[in-house]
């Protein structure tokens, strides 16, 4: 039986995906255009193994999908609305708190 995730579960999943700077960079790159893993690794300057782990996380979160393309596999955002959501989040945070910095998770004063 298909279950629908609660709003809290959906937001928590999105938050986990955005909690890592590399995953944010991947999402922003895919916001621009679908891409192949090798190309993404080169653009982001990370190893293919590291990229693969982050792409698996984003797939598990339901944010990206794979699209077979001959012998290769292309990645893209799972839904075009994610591109709009990323833009909205990015601009909303800048508009709300342009004079603030968010500490690392280890900081006691993290936003």
Automatic annotation (TrEMBL):
<dbReference type="InterPro" id="IPR001845">
    <property type="entry name" value="HTH_ArsR_DNA-bd_dom"/>
</dbReference>
<feature type="domain" description="HTH arsR-type">
    <location>
        <begin position="3"/>
        <end position="100"/>
    </location>
</feature>
<dbReference type="GO" id="GO:0032791">
    <property type="term" value="F:lead ion binding"/>
</dbReference>
<dbReference type="InterPro" id="IPR036390">
    <property type="entry name" value="WH_DNA-bd_sf"/>
</dbReference>
<dbReference type="GO" id="GO:0046686">
    <property type="term" value="P:response to cadmium ion"/>
</dbReference>
<keyword id="KW-0479">Metal-binding</keyword>
<dbReference type="GO" id="GO:0010288">
    <property type="term" value="P:response to lead ion"/>
</dbReference>
<comment type="subunit">
    <text>Homodimer.</text>
</comment>
<comment type="function">
    <text>Metal-responsive transcriptional repressor for the cmt operon. Binding of cadmium or lead causes the repressor to dissociate from the DNA.</text>
</comment>
<dbReference type="InterPro" id="IPR011991">
    <property type="entry name" value="ArsR-like_HTH"/>
</dbReference>
<dbReference type="GO" id="GO:0097063">
    <property type="term" value="F:cadmium ion sensor activity"/>
</dbReference>
<keyword id="KW-0804">Transcription</keyword>
<protein>
    <recommendedName>
        <fullName>HTH-type transcriptional regulator CmtR</fullName>
    </recommendedName>
</protein>
<dbReference type="InterPro" id="IPR052543">
    <property type="entry name" value="HTH_Metal-responsive_Reg"/>
</dbReference>
<dbReference type="Pfam" id="PF01022">
    <property type="entry name" value="HTH_5"/>
</dbReference>
<keyword id="KW-0238">DNA-binding</keyword>
<keyword id="KW-0104">Cadmium</keyword>
<dbReference type="InterPro" id="IPR036388">
    <property type="entry name" value="WH-like_DNA-bd_sf"/>
</dbReference>
<dbReference type="GO" id="GO:0003677">
    <property type="term" value="F:DNA binding"/>
</dbReference>
<keyword id="KW-0805">Transcription regulation</keyword>
<dbReference type="GO" id="GO:0003700">
    <property type="term" value="F:DNA-binding transcription factor activity"/>
</dbReference>
């Amino acid at each position: 039986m298909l279950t629908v995730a609660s709003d809290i579960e959906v937001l928590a999943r999105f938050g986990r995906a955005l909690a890592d700077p590399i995953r944010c960079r991947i999402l922003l790159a895919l916001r621009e255009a679908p891409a192949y893993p090798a190309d993404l690794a080169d653009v982001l300057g990370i190893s293919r193994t590291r990229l693969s782990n982050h792409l698996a996380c984003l797939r598990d979160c339901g944010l990206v999908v794979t699209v077979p393309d001959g012998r290769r596999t292309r990645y893209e955002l799972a839904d075009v609305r994610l591109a709009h959501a990323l833009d909205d989040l990015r601009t909303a945070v800048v508009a709300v708190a342009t004079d603030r910095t968010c500490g690392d998770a280890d900081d006691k004063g993290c936003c």
